[in-house]
Amino acid sequence: MTRQQLVEQIQQKQSYLCVGLDTDLTKIPKHLQSHPDAIYEFNKAIIDATLPHCVSYKINTAFYEAMGLKGWEAMERTVNYIPDTHFKIADAKRGDIGNTSTQYARAFFEAMNFDAVTVAPYMGEDSVRPFLEYEGKWAIVLGLTSNKGASDFELKQLVSSNGEEHLRAEFLYERVLRTVAKWGTPDNLMFVVGATQPEEFINIRSIIPDHFLLVPGVGAQGGSLKDISEKAMNNDCGLLVNASRAVIYASGKEDFATEAKAIAEQYQFEMKSYLC
Ligand SMILES: O=c1ccn([C@@H]2O[C@H](COP(=O)(O)O)[C@@H](O)[C@H]2O)c(=O)[nH]1
């Protein structure tokens, strides 16, 4: 999906919600757990219910990989079920030497029909580049993540080498944004920014004004949709805000899909107010 198509979807739907399909067999409703295709059946019901309220789905591959072959099959069937109107993200956090990243890119962009893959930037340009070489596909690089451990490396200040002592030394995540932004364009590169890092949103936008941000951390992790929307939206919206557990586990009973729809609709309603 191109940037223009994504922006059109956001405008049409008046939503920048990404529903996270972090589907865990132990957390889905009891009546589905014994179904031979439980994960796929659950995902299908969630997708049918939330489709009008979101523009994207994010499949966190860990939940599927953990189930072995059956999990990979459920992932593939799920991604094929999502219509092409919706932006399909493999949250796989890949990245390796170029020769290996090329195979990861093939796995998600050729063997499977994802629009984007999340990528860890630690191994540098050759590890990210293979994900940027597909027309209409995207790398979503980890910038400032939503977890507590973001302070272990991402929020560490680098020792200044330019002699500008009056300036605060750069955070590692800022260096990542500035450097990685040169490897791609706002048409094939997004960044992950956690909704739990509100004090950094304005700074992030000053460094990468045009890129889309994939924002996990609202809902179960307590981040604020209002904060991210007011501080980091750009002229194209520029945001995909993810909620996984808050939507898919809105109810643990037979009404799970109806309740997921209701939560997705609430997010869409709030998003509408920030878009106008
Ligand atoms: O910084 C990050 C990067 C990725 N994630 C992923 O997003 C979802 C969040 O799930 P919730 O249930 O809405 O909390 C999940 O797949 C994470 O692995 C993140 O949370 N933070």
From TrEMBL:
<comment type="similarity">
    <text>Belongs to the OMP decarboxylase family. Type 2 subfamily.</text>
</comment>
<keyword id="KW-0210">Decarboxylase</keyword>
<dbReference type="InterPro" id="IPR011060">
    <property type="entry name" value="RibuloseP-bd_barrel"/>
</dbReference>
<keyword id="KW-0456">Lyase</keyword>
<dbReference type="GO" id="GO:0004590">
    <property type="term" value="F:orotidine-5'-phosphate decarboxylase activity"/>
</dbReference>
<dbReference type="GO" id="GO:0006207">
    <property type="term" value="P:'de novo' pyrimidine nucleobase biosynthetic process"/>
</dbReference>
<dbReference type="Pfam" id="PF00215">
    <property type="entry name" value="OMPdecase"/>
</dbReference>
<comment type="pathway">
    <text>Pyrimidine metabolism; UMP biosynthesis via de novo pathway; UMP from orotate: step 2/2.</text>
</comment>
<feature type="domain" description="Orotidine 5'-phosphate decarboxylase">
    <location>
        <begin position="16"/>
        <end position="260"/>
    </location>
</feature>
<dbReference type="GO" id="GO:0044205">
    <property type="term" value="P:'de novo' UMP biosynthetic process"/>
</dbReference>
<dbReference type="InterPro" id="IPR011995">
    <property type="entry name" value="OMPdecase_type-2"/>
</dbReference>
<dbReference type="InterPro" id="IPR001754">
    <property type="entry name" value="OMPdeCOase_dom"/>
</dbReference>
<keyword id="KW-0665">Pyrimidine biosynthesis</keyword>
<protein>
    <recommendedName>
        <fullName>Orotidine-5'-phosphate decarboxylase</fullName>
        <ecNumber>4.1.1.23</ecNumber>
    </recommendedName>
</protein>
<dbReference type="InterPro" id="IPR013785">
    <property type="entry name" value="Aldolase_TIM"/>
</dbReference>
